[in-house]
Automatic annotation (TrEMBL):
Domain Histidine kinase/HSP90-like ATPase: 11-118
Keyword match ATP-binding: yes
InterPro entries membership: Anti-sigma-factor_SerPK, HATPase_C_sf, HATPase_dom
GO molecular function: ATP binding
Family matches, as Gene3D superfamilies: Histidine kinase-like ATPase, C-terminal domain (3.30.565.10)
Annotated protein name in UniProt: ATP-binding protein
Keywords, sorted A to Z: ATP-binding, Kinase, Nucleotide-binding, Serine/threonine-protein kinase, Transferase
């Protein structure tokens, strides 16, 4: 998996999106969907994790079978602690609902670091 770090600022959303799509070599519908997924996850870190200025948001991307990919967004913020993807869906907001709609599967792991992972398989 390729890995890049971004500061917790609004400009990182677009930079991370472009980096992920270019790194994965995507185009068309897959590029649009993965761009949205990365944007939503990085936006959540920027807005909800309570990160200090010198913290970093880590984005990892890698190719998977059938033209799909895996995305992981990590931060060490303490404010966004979901126990499960199901809990995220109940909390409201549109970002994670968009993630659920576009991804094949996704979830949240937290062990002092929050990791939101997504698997994406392009539509047939």
């Amino acid at each position: 998996m390729a890995r890049e770090e971004f500061p917790p600022v609004a400009d990182s959303v677009g930079v991370a999106r472009r980096w992920a799509v270019a790194t994965l070599g995507l185009d068309g519908r897959a590029a649009e969907d993965v761009g949205i997924l990365v944007s939503e996850l990085v936006t959540n870190s920027v807005l909800h994790a309570g990160l200090v200025d010198d913290a970093r948001i880590v984005v990892e991307v890698g190719r998977a079978a059938r033209g799909g990919c895996r995305i992981v967004v990590c931060d060490d913020g303490g404010r966004f602690r979901l126990k499960s993807a199901a809990a995220a869906r109940r909390q409201g907001g549109r970002g994670l609902k968009i993630v659920a709609a576009l991804s094949t599967d996704w979830g949240v792991d937290h062990d002092g670091i929050t990791r939101v992972w997504v698997t994406y398989d392009p539509p047939a």
